[in-house]
Amino acid sequence: MPTLIDFRRRIRSVKNTQQITRAMKFIAAARLRKAQEGVIAARPYAREILRVLRSAVARMEDPATHPLLERRPEQRILVVLLTGDRGLAGPFNANVIRYGLTFLREHSSLDIKVMAIGRKGRDVLRKRNYKFAGEYLNVSLSVEFKHAKEIGARIIELYSTQEVDAVYVIYNEFKSVLVQRLVAEKLLPIDPAVLGQPDPDHPEAAKPQADQAEAQKNPPALVDYIYEQPPQELFKALVLRYVDTEIFRILLESSAAEHGARMAAMDSATNNAADLIDELTLEMNKIRQAGITRELIEIVSGAASAIG
Amino acid sequence: MPPQIQLEVVTPARRVLSAQVDSVELPGKDGYLGILPGHAPLITELGIGMLSYVQSGQTHYMTVIEGFAEVLSERVIVLAEVSERAEEIDPARAKESAKRAQERLSKSGSTELDWQRAEVSLQRALTRQAVAGKASGYQS
Question: In this predicted model, what pLDDT tens digit does every residue of A92-108 receive, in sequence order?
């Protein structure tokens, strides 16, 4: 039979835990807000880069010959798994890792290299002896463009030296605080539809669907630019920057998703702690009541026997 | 000819500037470019340097670190990796990082890559210093 002291102790310990989870929730909320602002702030840049790139591609003689647009049969692929560095984010890491492992199994007939961004994914892939092409830790806490640049440079190096024929990124896309969507996105070769070019695999479906409405609003003005640098060189620099920008967006999305997941997890942990405290308090009061009742009975029966 | 240019400076982190200006000078990769309203369409890569623009008779300065610029007859879009307005720069910090970069450059035995990095950071720091100096000092 637990005594009152035991209950008091347990309640105190649950309260302490609750304070920690509440603090973590607020921290996650603050970081989430920052990450969300980052996602929104990165959009104008990404949009403009893409627009300039598109208009440069439209004026190229044969864009498909560029090494980063060239399509090769996919025999060797690079899979980039984007996870968090820390736990306590609900199912965030477990989900993306499971999704990633399924993806890797489905493509196990190919020659696979992996790249891990985030400690959680790194650890899992290490344990399973995948061939590593790079790992980047502690990126998700505060995403900066220079991280994206560094990762982008490595990916482009692998792709342009023909060590891999395609690059896939597996990550959590930020839908809302409670909803993340798992995606496996093909980063390279760049989808011709994105650049407003006909897709060699589906020539009839040449138009990019998502941007169609927007494209109709501002039709890409075909301007004959003066190129300060040779067009090929400029185009190459633009493509590299576009890849960096894409990676930057993905990092931001995943970071926002992680903070969102952590906030939700810590919120429910705080609520659970509150429920537990209520239950324990109720239990404790019952025991205290039982003690008082017992003492009363003893007094009353003692008094009765004294009178009698 | 359009009377003014809409100047937009955007980085991955934020929109730094959006203003109607009379003229712009861009730090192109192969040298500075002066842009007036009605310029022919142009695309250029940018180096590390100082961007200046004239707005109602006053010249304003900002740093631009690597990127691209698209020039149209009434619009200039600068896609920089990093960009700061003069008043945002801490001169003391810029001076400090210039010193550090200089030390790294003078250190012997560093690899080619280290040297390149140090050179770039020195260039950045010097540009920052120059731009910060323009903010607090004279108007040209």
Answer: 888 899 988 998 888 88
- Count structural domains, chain A: 2
Helix (H) and strand (E) counts in chain B = 2, 7
- What ipTM was predicted for this assembly? 0.77
Q: Which residues pair with B62 in a beta bridge?
A: B51, B85
Amino acid type, A14 = V
**CA nearest A244 in B: which residue?**
B12
Q: How far is B78 from chain A (nearest CA, A)?
A: 9
Q: Pick the closest to residue A267 from A5, A3, A11, A21 (CA basis).
A: A21
- Looking at the fold, whether B76 and B130 belong to one and the same domain comes out as no
Q: Tokens 């009541």 sit at which residue? A: A289
Give the residue numbers spanning the domain of B105: 90-136
Residue A83 has pLDDT above 60, yes or no: yes
Residues of B in contact with A54 (CB under 8 A): none
Interacting residues of B62 by C-beta distance below 8 A, sequence separation 6+: B9, B16, B17, B50, B51, B52, B83, B84, B85, B86, B131
* Chain B hits for A223, Cβ within 8 Å: 41, 72
